[in-house]
Amino acid sequence: MKKILVSDFDGTFYLNNDDIKKNIEKVEKFRKSGNIFIIATGRSYDEFKEALSKYPLSYDYLIINNGATILNKDHVFISNCIIKDWIKKILLKNLNFSDITNIYGCTIINSKIDVSRRRLTKIHIEYSTVEQAKKISSYINRKYKLFLKSYVIVTTKAVEIISSKCNKAKSVKKIAKSKKINKKDIYAVGDSYNDLDMIKAFNGYTMENGKDELKQISISILPTVSDLIENLLEKEKGNQ
Questions:
Q1: What is the pLDDT at residue 240?
Q2: Contact 125, 100 (CB under 8 A)
Q3: For a disulfide at 147, which of 87, 139, 165, 190, Cβ 3.0-4.6 Å?
Q4: What are the residues whose beta carbons fall under 8 Å from the beta carbon of 121, sequence distance 6 or more?
Q5: Are residue 60 and residue 175 in the same domain, yes or no?
Q6: Which pTM was predicted?
């Protein structure tokens, strides 16, 4: 039975140079067995292209901007979920910019552009402390939950905002539906808050370095993605 494996990138598929090389080798075996591999990252298109320039990573689909944008393996855009301009204006008007250390927007392709641009896919806001970021993220998710979804990015002390109509799990479901793959055959692995939805929705796994909230709901905690792929391939052999 064909399976889907969806993996976050930073802190999950990529831990260090040796780790990602091993993961890439295992992904090739996984895909050659007829399975589907998806990268689901918070990175924008421009930012993920930087990673691709360093590593020969193959995949069937790419989900970027925390689930707002889906591309196929040929980098053809399948769908993109934008932040409505009117709610963006209200949000920015109500933020205290004296607390913000950096702010930029992302479109379907471009990253680090002025937030005044129309039809943004993602907004990235950095603060001085993680505590500030968590406070603002909680405020956004409470006050604007019908229109916006916010995630805390601990490594950059940032808040990333997308439309509430999308997340990583919803994008994976779109792909699975198009491929007629059952939910029970979808596996997901991640380490951070923007992975929570897909960890809950599917057969979810968390990295050893992952957030406690993810570990509490995961099937198992993994040292590396290659371990999960090896287990899935072994199960396939056992079922033959």
A1: 54
A2: yes
A3: 87
A4: 44, 65, 68, 69, 80, 81, 82, 83, 106, 107, 108, 162
A5: yes
A6: 0.95
Structural domain containing residue 175: 4-80+166-239
Mean pLDDT across 82-110: 96
Among residues 121, 136, 163, the one where a domain terminates is 163
More confident residue, 236 or 116: 116
CA distance 184 to 13: 22
Residue 238: predicted pLDDT: 60
Q: How buried is 93 (Cβ within 10 angstroms: 0-12 exposed, 13-18 middle, 19+ buried)?
A: exposed
CA torsion, ordered 207, 208, 213, 215, to nearest 10 deg: 80
CA neighbor of 102 nearest in space, from 81, 133, 69, 131: 133
Exposed/middle/buried for residue 187 (C-beta within 10 Å: 0-12, 13-18, 19+): buried
Count of domains forming the chain: 2
pLDDT tens by residue, 4-30 = 999 999 999 999 999 999 999 999 999
Distance between CA 147 and CA 197 in Å, rounded?
17
98 and 74 in a single domain? The answer is no
- Alpha-carbon distance 24 to 59, whole Å? 9
